[in-house]
Amino acid sequence: MHIAIAGNIGAGKTTLTKLLAKHYKWEAQLEDVVDNPYLDDFYNQMERWSFNLQVYFLNSRFRQVLQIRESGKDIIQDRTIYEDAHIFAPNLHAMGLMTNRDFENYRSLFDLMESLVQGPDLLIYLRSSIPNLVAQIHKRGRDYENSISIDYLSRLNERYEAWIHGYNKGKLVIIDVDKLDFVDNPEDLGSIINTIDAEINGLF
């Protein structure tokens, strides 16, 4: 079974991925942030490194999806291959931070990869307001995220909502994380688990 968690920067994807992996004894596939050779450069000079970063993520996630299907294990994935192509890359293109030529090349590569993979069995989307995202980003204190603007987060949020509205790859659960504290409140985590249980068991 392939479960994936989607959501904006700071929505709590990695934290929830780890908590659910522990609860269900699923294997966690986390986003490759530490070893990503482009992230620092990208946040310092977005226009120069946007294409390189997006291709790196695309390659990394395509490899992950293939490994998930081949493994036959129950795996929960932190962020999907779709988010880069439907949210991050188009946003960089729209902001003038990725050229038309690079964006067309990127889209062509994604379309080819998408034709070779299946969507997750269940997608969990973490919906969050901008103030909540900003608070979470500041709390975790990653140096390269200090330069992320509220405008950038807002643009991403709009694209996330549009993507989720038309999502048709499989089962979908939407969790409003503004109203939940699944880290420190076991009841909040329990309510998320109950929702997921119902979807997995096909109760509704």
From TrEMBL:
This is Deoxynucleoside kinase. One of its GO terms (molecular function) is kinase activity. Gene3D superfamilies: P-loop containing nucleotide triphosphate hydrolases. Pfam families: dNK (PF01712). InterPro entries: DCK/DGK, Deoxyribonucleoside_kinase, DNK_dom, P-loop_NTPase. Keywords: Kinase, Transferase. Residues 3-198 form the Deoxynucleoside kinase domain.
